Amino acid sequence: MFHSLSQLAKWSSAKVIGNTDLMIQKIAYDSRKTFVADQTLFVAIKSVNNDGHVYIPELYEKGMRAFLVEEQAQVNYSVYPDAGFIICNNTVAGLQAIAAAVRQSLTIPFIGITGSNGKTIVKEWLARLLESHYRVGRSPRSFNSQLGVPLSIWMMEQDIEMAIIEAGISQPGEMKALADCIAPDFGIFTNIGRAHQENFASIDEKLEEKLKLFESAHTIFFHGDDALIGEALLSRYPEKKLLSCGKGDGNALQLLLQDSGSEGAVLQLSWNGQPFTLHFPYQDVIAIDNLLLVVLVALELELPLQNVINEVPKLQAIAMRLEQKEGINNCLLIDDGYNADLTALELGLDFLNQMGAKRGLSKTLILSDIYQSGMHHQELYAQIQKLANEKGVEKLIGIGEHLYTAMDGVNAYRTTADFLAKVDVNSYKNEAILLKGSRQFAFEQISALLEQRRHKTVLEINLNALAYNVQYFRSKLKKETRLLAMVKAFSYGTGAFEIANLLQHQKVDYLGVAFADEGIELRKAGITLPIIVMNPELSSFPMMLEYELEPEIYSFQVLDAYLTAVQRQGLTNVPVHIKIDTGMNRLGFVPSEIPQLIEQLRSTHQLMVSSVFSHLAGSDEALHDGFTQKQIDRFKQACETMQNGLGRGFIRHLLNSAGIERFADAQFDMVRLGIGMYGVSAIHDEALKQVNTLKSYVSQIKEVTAGETVGYSRKGQAESARRIAVIPIGYADGYNRRLSNGVGQVLINGHRAPVIGNICMDMCMADVTQIHVQEGDEVEIFGAGISISEVAEKLDTIPYEILTSISRRVKRVYVME
């Protein structure tokens, strides 16, 4: 759909200047993504770490002509003569007002979903059921924020018959704007839990805030077995139609009986007194709770019961993220398991374009037929081709009857099996490849063919969670406090470039590495942030200067050697970082050496003190708080002496992750964030998100009779017969051998299984006698179910050691929601 700039300004109650006749089809908020410049409105968003207004000159040069800006940004409009500007007080609020007007122009039913968890899975499953009867539009992925909701509404196609939008909040006062955007006719409340609780005084306050979404709804769906939600809904909305699901007698959709079958759960249900049976692929409580809501809504919307019975067995877990994997021949695989529609395709292509550009790779799209688009396949292919061209795709491979016909068989295949039989894998070289397929096309077979390594034990790194944790720690800092992110030791075992690249986009101020080689690797990969080398070797100084790496100076020997290297290259004002030993008794100048240090630094103009810092020895334990305070006082005194002696200021930094949480008054000018990025909290704050998941799979199940032993040294003997799962991860992968013989546990299908026998070099064994397990089932070594901290405690060590011990032969998979 197209709207004029003047119309958008009217909807947002804002003034407009310049070219008001520009016609807008798309909205952009990220200058790094590709777009059709003359049809796109750029929304300049000002955040804590960035300001979209600074990218206006660059975007104007690229052909962008329409901008939504904030009045206080003081843009010089005169230098953009043919551009049009909508000027408002807050660009996100302006975009929300535009979305609210677009929503009012759509006379179809809107379904709004909120709750602490399960919003996206309920939305996706409901859409998949309803698509058997309706043309359904929905918000992509987890687009449920103050920005994501209006973008979702803008992207709704005109010919849909029903829209499903999810809404998420993290603090009081946020829901009203989302409710105005969505104005739902039907509301779904999934559940209420601890997520985002840190900004609310109580669960009740958060519940009341979430319920504001349903002001316009005439019908609300919820779990009737949750008395807290039911009572709150009845109190707030006594006049509305409230429909519930659950086991209790008063529920409109009642779960009468649940049995476990070989293919999942068999559910006996009753709807308005009519009994029926559903076969559901999952048995866990959370999945069944989500399903009950989905079925309740579908039946109330008059989806034929037989459709529900037919479609529920086909429901699959939703991949709400893009997985990056190293491919053959220097290829990068981007595996997008999300629903295949044009909106999701565009999001995937944006990511493909971004990652291809970073690695200097050509861009390839392997795409399946897109069903239920409402278009003839020739028209749909024209849209796909146009989108691929806009996003810089150089090779398009189509799979499916419709694409095969539309593409006249050129670079097209009727089935995935046809592609696998005919493809020459060696023809894929130096490419970023987006795999975008509907589930029935089983693109995981293509992924397996093009993937570089076959070792199924992987360390999964959730980049969204890491970015969230960075912002969590940032929220604890004063506005002026800078942030140094530590990426030493291969980013604590998680991968150097990928993490550093994310942190660069998160606008951290510095990166810290242990050795020069780590910094050089980052520079070669395109990282431009200032990088401090914490343990520089004297022989590395010439290379450090070449790659603009900044050393920690911790002794007079290091100072003299670095000064010599700088003088040989004829450089001046080269930044250095002075380490003070305040009680760690590791590296650093002791207080008595500071006068001599000042004298030497004052005698040269080749070096410039960029920062002075120290390390806390016990900031994570209350036992050492007295000593920590002594270190803070010593550091403060040392900095004062240095400043007075040098006659100039510098950046001061002392706090690590634990210090940020426990000693807010000692932030000085900068803090250093390390293990906290990965979800490890000194105060056990549940607000942090799990970043790393180490997982493998069951390669074989063995039936072991009573009295037999398991593994080397004949350990793990028991008096009864057992079922043993063999798992391909061992101490060569970083799974510590001290977790053998019942010390460690793994998680399989939601149940803990003790490690049996000695952990071997390449595999270990777990007792699954009491668990329903099949060969090929996923095994969590640590992650959401078994935390890194728990594993560390069992080994009497720290989470740092657990992460950094993971072998490089374990494949790192980076996921982005």
Automatic annotation (TrEMBL):
Domain Alanine racemase C-terminal, first and last residues per copy: 691-815
Alphabetized SUPFAM superfamilies for the sequence: Alanine racemase C-terminal domain-like (SSF50621), MurD-like peptide ligases, catalytic domain (SSF53623), MurD-like peptide ligases, peptide-binding domain (SSF53244), MurE/MurF N-terminal domain (SSF63418), PLP-binding barrel (SSF51419)
UniProt: substrate binding residues: R586, M761
Catalytic activity: L-alanine = D-alanine
Superkingdom of source: Bacteria
Molecular function per GO: acid-amino acid ligase activity; alanine racemase activity; ATP binding; pyridoxal phosphate binding
GO cellular component: cytosol
Modified residues annotated as N6-(pyridoxal phosphate)lysine in this record: K488
Keyword S-adenosyl-L-methionine: no
EC number(s) per entry: 5.1.1.1
Active-site positions on this chain: K488, Y712
GO BP field: D-alanine biosynthetic process
InterPro entries per UniProt: Ala_racemase, Ala_racemase/Decarboxylase_C, Ala_racemase_C, Ala_racemase_N, Mur-like_cat_sf, Mur_ligase_C_dom_sf, Mur_ligase_cen, MurE/MurF_N
Pathway: Amino-acid biosynthesis; D-alanine biosynthesis; D-alanine from L-alanine: step 1/1
Cofactors that this protein relies on: pyridoxal 5'-phosphate
Keywords: Isomerase, Ligase, Pyridoxal phosphate
Family: Belongs to the alanine racemase family.
HAMAP family: Ala_racemase (MF_01201)
Described function: Catalyzes the interconversion of L-alanine and D-alanine. May also act on other amino acids.
Name listed for the protein in its UniProt record: Alanine racemase
Organism classification: Bacteria, Pseudomonadati, Bacteroidota, Bacteroidia, Marinilabiliales
